[in-house]
Amino acid sequence: MKTLEEVFGPNRQDPKTWNPWIVIRHGIFSNDLPFRSLASFLAGRFPMATIDNQKYNWHDSVVLSGAWLANAILSDPKIADRPLILIGHSMGGLVCRVANLLVSQPNAIAQNPLLFSNYCLLDPNDLQTLKNFGLSAKKPHRANLVITLATPNSGAMLQAQISGLGLLAKTIYSTHATAMNDLTTVRLFRLLQYFSVSTPLLSISGSGWNRYGKAPASAVLRLAHLAGRLHLPNDMIVEDRSVDLAQSILQNEVVSSSGAKYLHARLYADCIDVVHDNIYDHWKVRDMVADCITRC
Predict the structure, then answer these.
(1) Helices assigned H by DSSP within the chain
(2) Residue 73 and residue 15: Cα distance in Å, rounded?
(3) Which backbone phi and psi does 234 adopt, to 5 degrees?
(4) What is the pLDDT of residue 166?
(5) Rounded to an integer, what distance in angstroms lies between the CA atom of residue 82 and that of residue 20?
(6) Where are the domains of the chain?
(7) What is the pLDDT of residue 226?
(8) In 10 A of CB 220, how many CB atoms?
(9) Between helices 124-132 and 62-75, what is the axis angle to 10°?
(10) CA distance 28 to 269
(11) What is the DSSP code (8-state) at residue 274?
């Protein structure tokens, strides 16, 4: 695996004096509470930073949640001249990717009405809400870095991955949350494939223990007769290859067309599982996040 320095370059910022605006967003079925520890850790590393850890309505579509976040960033004069860092866990990483696109290209919705109209076919009210933000009238802002943690970045979360979780699967499908369409279909990724951003991005995945969890994906795929029973490396919710944008089936706004700096890191230390629901609390992940922030 490439190192942070190889991809993002040397440390550029003094953590004690730098003043970034650091946004943290949770994933589905969650809120800001589990991320207060991460927020506190980053506040300790970057005492001049503002840590924005807030809950949002995860029932909404990813694009709508991303637009809410982008509008909040572009409408706040306190952020206008500050370095911007976006950190998202699970679905929150997708929300940050959308927010990053709209922050850097506020006219994206106005200039591509058909693309966003097709995305909003399931809920036409979303399209009007997106238009009502009036983002195209706002001044663009460039994010210094996007970090996604255990995010199904390179393709939709497979229904098979969550169907095996019993009660969770029933809960997911009983909520009828619009966001589930973004996690279990390709509709979000069919939208993002038409855009390009230059923002550096670090994606981090964990790996829950299983018999083949630490084997290369290629080795597992060769065992075709066992394909129905094997688990590729995963964090117990999202497959490792789904986190890595470089393995995306559909073109994405970061890797495929923009040439943005990108690194995918798969973490587990000393054979201790780094799973979906603890990745943001693992010391190695936190150190990597803080280290990367100083390089961007």
Answers:
(1) 4-8, 36-45, 62-75, 91-104, 108-111, 113-119, 124-132, 159-163, 167-175, 179-184, 187-192, 217-221, 240-243, 283-294
(2) 22
(3) -155, 170
(4) 46
(5) 6
(6) 4-294
(7) 44
(8) 18
(9) 10
(10) 26
(11) B
Length of the chain as a residue count: 296
- Closest by Cα among 194, 203, 287, 190 to 238: 203
Which residues are paired to 239 by β-bridges? Answer: 234
Tokens of 264: 């995918």
In words, the CATH class of domain 4-294 is alpha beta
The token duo for 147 is: 């970090």
pLDDT tens-digit readout, 84-128: 999 999 999 999 999 999 999 999 999 999 999 999 998 889 999
Strands 84-89 and 50-53: unpaired
Handedness of CA 27, 104, 153, 157 (dihedral sign): positive
Helix (H, G, I), strand (E, B) or coil at 262: strand
Tokens of 223: 């065992």
User: 10 Å Cβ neighbour count for 211?
Assistant: 10
Which residue is listed with tokens 């990813």?
Answer: 62
The pair phi, psi for residue 235, each rounded to 5°, is -105, 25
